[in-house]
Amino acid sequence: MQTNTTPNTAHALKLADRVSLWLFAAAGAVIAAWVTSSAVGRIIDVLPNRDVAVLATFAGTPAEAPIGPDGAPVSVALDQAVLTVPALPVASQWAIVIQQLVLMLAVIVSVAALVWLIRNVARGVVFCRTNTVLVATAGFVGLGGFVAVPFFGNMAANGGFAVLSERTFDNVIMSVDPFALVLWAFAVALLGTVFSIGERLQRDTEGLV
Asked: Most buried by CB count within 10 Å: which residue of 19, 76, 121, 132?
């Protein structure tokens, strides 16, 4: 099936609309660059495997914080904390490296797909097979990153717990919010359906002309 991405002067956007779209594209490029820089920095920090900071999720674990009068300890329920682990197990160390690579790849691919989509829309091409594929790619790659990044983070945190507690503290928690996951999947499916229907309607309309 032929895909038409030729600029459509009949559907050309106003200058202000094109500027807004390219500002979004520029913001996406900045975000991708920042995430890449942060991910590379995190990998560099982790590779020596000395005093590694690991974000850990707790299930309301009791703890004490110095927030009472004159810094007196007060019991609190711990949801998240940063663990400083002298040396992570190799599997946990590489889980962090993979986590950062997945994060970087997901953001770069999603931003690249959306920038390509913005380019097409700015040229007056809204509904076509290429744009449908770009929307689906950005959505599902982002969805995969949304699941994979905390998964590998959990692997690293579990290794940190094992080292610090000498395997006496079991804290296996899935940190992905199921509601947010379902909402994201619904939004991706909805956008893909909208672009697919729009593509088909435009193709049918052009066939009548």
From this structure: 132
